[in-house]
């Protein structure tokens, strides 16, 4: 075998080796791309499931209670404006706000009110204040809604009566603000609620209710 044939064989072997290595690298890259694609798809699927189902929450109270807070605060602002405008259409809007606020407060305080267990003494005191102002909110918003109905159908745009309605709504707004303050204190300072801390499960609530225990 002469030198020319020897170097030709070496070149062919080198070329085939390079070609084989290229194919191997290409397959590896395709495999990595497929893996990255799978990871991306998995991440997308996970991102779709970031939003928790309602069943995942230990209690729905925090998801409901913000509605009456906003509605009752908005109602008192609109009622203040109404003292100067005496607009009949505004009366309907205010009635919708305060009525919806009352319904939201009732639902938050009755149907989705959490039952607690193992509270510290400080947390118990804070909870008592929270419940007191929540009750005041419920009753004052109910009275405000009734007064607004009277204003719409009987008194009809009398400024003196509207001032009385404003006073009741202002008290309701104050009460819901205080209830929200103590509620926030329970969550962020006393640690009641996050990840179900100090909150009874449904089975525990059912057991307590069967034993005649409330709250």
Number of beta strands: 0
Please tally the helical runs, counting DSSP H or I stretches of 4 or more residues.
Answer: 6
N- to C-terminal separation? 100 Å
Low-confidence stretches: 39-47, 203-215
Order of helical and strand elements: HHHHHH
Give the amount of beta strand, in percent: under 5%
Biggest sheet: strands, sense, closure? none
Mean pLDDT: 78
* Structure class: mainly alpha
Helix content: over 70%
Compact summary:
The chain has 215 residues and is an all-alpha fold. 78% of the residues lie in helices and 0% in strands.
Question: How does the SSE layout of this entry go?
Answer:
Layout: H1 3-48, H2 61-85, H3 88-110, H4 121-155, H5 159-188, H6 202-210
Helix pairs in contact: 2-3, 2-5, 3-4, 4-5
Word description of this protein:
The protein has 215 residues and is mostly helical. Helix content is 78%, strand content 0%. The chain is built from 6 helices and no strands. The protein has helices at residues 3-48, 61-85, 88-110, 121-155, 159-188, 202-210. Helix 2 runs antiparallel to helix 3. The model is unreliable at 39-47 and 203-215 (pLDDT under 50).
What descriptive keywords fit this protein?
single chain; 215 residues; mainly alpha; 6 helices; 0% strand; disordered C terminus
């Amino acid at each position: 075998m002469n030198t020319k044939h020897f170097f030709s064989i070496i070149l062919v072997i080198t070329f085939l080796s390079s070609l084989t290595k290229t194919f191997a690298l290409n397959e590896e890259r395709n495999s990595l791309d497929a893996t990255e694609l799978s990871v991306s798809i998995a991440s997308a699927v996970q991102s779709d499931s970031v939003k928790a189902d309602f069943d995942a929450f230990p209690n729905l109270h925090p998801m409901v209670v913000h509605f009456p807070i906003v509605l009752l605060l908005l109602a008192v602002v609109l009622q203040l404006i109404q003292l100067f405008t005496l607009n009949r259409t505004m009366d309907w809007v205010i009635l919708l706000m305060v009525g919806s606020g009352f319904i939201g407060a009732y639902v938050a305080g009755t149907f989705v009110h959490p039952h607690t267990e193992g509270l510290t003494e400080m947390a118990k005191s804070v909870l008592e204040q929270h419940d007191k102002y929540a009750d005041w909110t419920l009753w004052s918003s109910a009275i405000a809604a009734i007064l607004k109905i009277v204003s719409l159908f009987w008194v009809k745009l009398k400024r003196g009566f509207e001032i009385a309605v404003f006073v009741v709504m202002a008290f309701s707004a104050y009460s819901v603000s205080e209830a929200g303050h103590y509620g926030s204190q329970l969550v962020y300072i006393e640690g009641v609620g996050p990840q179900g801390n100090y909150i009874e499960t449904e089975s525990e609530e059912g057991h307590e209710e069967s034993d005649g225990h409330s709250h």
